[in-house]
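Ticket #4471: structure export looks truncated?
Reporter: QA, pipeline team
Priority: medium

Steps to reproduce: submit the single chain below to the structure queue and open the exported record.
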Amino acid sequence: MAPIEARYGGGEECNLIGPTREELKKISGLYGFGLGDSELDVFLQYINQEIIPSYNELERMVEQKPQVKYPRDLGRAPREEENEFGAWAWKCSATGSRRGPLSGKKIALKDNIALAGVPMMIGSAVMEGFIPDVDATVVTRILDAGGEIVGKAICENLCLSGGSYTSYPWPVHNPHNKDHMTGGSSSGSAVLVATREVDMALGGDQGGSIRIPASWCGVFVLKPTWGLVPYTGISSAEATLDHVGPMASKMKDVALLLEVIAGWDGLDPRQGMGDVPKNLPKYTDSLSGKIAGIRVGVLKEGFDWKDSDTDVDKMVRASAEAFREMGATVTDVSLPMHRKAAHILDGVVWEGVWSVLRDETAGHGWLGYYDTSALEFFASARRSRAIEFPIMAKLIMIAGHFIADKYHSKYYAKAQNLRYTLRSAYDNALQKYDMLLMPTVPYKARRFRTEQSLLEFIISGWSMTHNTGPSNLTGHPAINVPCGKSGGLPVGTMLVGKSFDEGTIMNAAYAYELKYQ
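Actual output as written to the record:
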């Protein structure tokens, strides 16, 4: 087939419709401005004679979009017989360079990552019919490196659940026991790696969304330092929480994929705000498997939660002892603020995600690439198909609106300010230790529940971020290390490292893999 070409918006005759006097009066009342008829008439005249014509000119201007470099087989929906666990959203074949470090590797993308010409539903009925016309930066880098993207992995509905029961049109089942959940929101990515249908996958993480399913499916995954991997072309939940990271069944593949996708792209403002280094190490070189002298702090507050499984705590502590046997220095450490992080995360999420949904995913006040095609599609869907929004999104829209309006966004601001305190607490601990160790998720994969109240439905989607959420707030890198099974279900140990020191925690995970797997 002919190469997909980057498409450009604009260039068509367009006449935007200006407001009526009644519309302006209604907006004035909304803000309590008390404008009189004469003032409204002047506003009406100025908007219709000055602002709207200027916007008409803006509409006719040509908008340059990131180039789509490579052709691809646009693929098809998965057949039932090839989708045993419900992990595939779409199957295709996108290739680029014939040679490169990812040559021969098959990779899946979480279905919130744009792959031009291929449907992207973000696990939701409201996005049905949307086809991106750009490639995410990570996609271009994978194809440049010789990898083959073989499809989109299904994810939870608008990425708003840590379970695996909200994705449209089907749930995702745990490959170790189909009666249990996979975890989310990067549910399909974890299953495709666990079942060896792909060598690697990418997922997104705002509160644990790649580490939760990795823990419950028994695969390695890295949530990189915030901003290290560009988020351009990936649907956002809240920019200050957005992370994208690699997932694989082998640590060498995790490090290799990170090596390919990390670094500046000039389009993602997160990278500037996160002080991402210009020169990055070759991450595969960090995998020596030698960890003698590495200092591991076993985080007291990461264990013994009210809903912890005792076998999970026991196995993760055993993994700490395994690191000691390999030559690491292992001691307990206390970080009390870890237990308060959930409240800070709430303060960011409820208003932050609400504002993203309210603003049709774009937001304001940042310099970078805005995907106007995705914005326009989502905006239309939000208005015409709001009834189909997942219950999680409806709750966020209502609660976020109420809190922001009632309390004037004070608590969003306070939560963002408290992130610095939390980050400092982690940084202080990481001056003494090279990494902190705790359970990724305090309990094993939960069963699907066929009968539950609406309240139970909501709680079961957001109750597993005890240990994963804090590092989304602080931005520190964190990795899931499979440390065994209990009752046939995987258990994961999480290692949290210093900012931009992915190599140290990846090497520790690699050492564990070499000795125990």
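Status: closed, not a bug. The export was complete when the record was re-opened. Leaving a note from the reviewer for reference: Residues 37-60 form the longest helix (24 residues).
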